[in-house]
């Protein structure tokens, strides 16, 4: 755990978690517990799969209350929260997800497993991102959006299922390409 990190007493940090400096984690969070992974046995009965990866939380991250971040599935997999990410209350981030630096995540957002979110995105209230989706950099995702497919860089999406509304003109940067 890095310097100047503050973790609320009622939060549980599992041993597989690495935390950078200047991190704030609010009350009632679970960081590094197993994700939702079940395989059916020969009798078609669901059997839980133990996760063996970890969680990496980089520097200057803020996580509010009641957030769950699952650990990676295999020993080589991690769930990664990039530098300067800010998370509101009641967010679920599943196993093997990556959240890019500077991303802002509003309350109630849910990430399916192996989701990749680039840098400097804004995810509105109660977004849902399907497993294995990739969201590029500098995107704005409207509240209540259900993301079912990949999103390139620098766009605004909203709806259920979410659709592109237009390019995100807030970010006119040379390092961002419109796809």
CATH architectural type: 3 Solenoid
Helical fraction? under 10%
CATH topology: UDP N-Acetylglucosamine Acyltransferase, domain 1
* SSE order, one letter for each helix or strand: EEEEEEEEEEEEEEEEEEEEEEEE
- Anisotropy-based shape: globular
Distance between the amino and carboxyl termini: 39 Å
Approximately how much beta-strand content do the residues carry? 35-45%
Name the average pLDDT: 93
The total domain count is: 1
Q: What CATH first level would be assigned?
A: Mainly Beta
Q: Please tally the β strands and state the result.
A: 24
Number of helices: 0
The stretches of 5 or more residues where confidence is low (pLDDT under 50) are none
CATH superfamily: Hexapeptide repeat proteins
Determine the oligomeric state from the structure. Answer: single chain
Strand-pairing-aware structural class: mainly beta
Using only CA atoms, what is the Rg?
16 Å
Please describe the biggest sheet, giving its number of strands, its sense, and whether it closes into a barrel: 9 strands, mixed
Strand arrangement across the biggest beta sheet:
1-4-9-12-15-18-21-23-24
Please explain how this structure is put together.
- The protein is mainly beta.
- The chain has one domain: UDP N-Acetylglucosamine Acyltransferase, domain 1, CATH 2.160.10.10.
- The chain has no helices and 24 strands.
- It has strands at 6-7, 12-13, 17-19, 24-25, 30-33, 38-40, 46-48, 54-57, 62-63, 68-70, 78-81, 86-87, 92-93, 98-99, 104-105, 110-111, 116-117, 122-123, 128-129, 134-135, 140-141, 146-147, 155-159, 162-167.
- The strands form 4 sheets. It has a 9-stranded mixed beta sheet with strand order 1-4-9-12-15-18-21-23-24, with no helix packed on it. It has a 7-stranded parallel beta sheet with strand order 2-5-10-13-16-19-22, with no helix packed on it.
- The model has no long low-confidence stretch (mean pLDDT 93).
């Amino acid at each position: 755990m890095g310097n100047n990190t503050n973790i609320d007493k009622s939060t549980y940090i599992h041993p597989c978690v690495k935390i950078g400096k200047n991190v704030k984690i609010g009350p009632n969070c679970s960081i590094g517990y197993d994700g939702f992974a079940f395989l059916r046995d020969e009798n078609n009965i669901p059997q839980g799969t133990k996760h063996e990866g970890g969680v990496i939380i980089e520097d200057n991250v803020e996580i509010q209350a009641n957030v769950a971040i699952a650990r990676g599935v295999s020993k080589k997999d991690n769930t990664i929260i990039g530098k300067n990410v800010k998370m509101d209350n009641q967010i679920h981030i599943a196993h093997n997800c990556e959240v890019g630096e500077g991303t802002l995540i509003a309350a109630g957002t849910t990430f399916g497993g192996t989701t990749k979110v680039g840098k400097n995105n804004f995810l509105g209230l109660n977004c849902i991102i399907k497993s294995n989706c990739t969201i590029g950099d500098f995107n704005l995702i409207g509240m209540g959006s259900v993301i079912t497919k990949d999103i390139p860089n620098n766009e605004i999406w909203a709806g259920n299922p979410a659709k592109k509304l237009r390019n995100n003109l807030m970010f006119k940067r040379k390092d961002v390409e419109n796809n």
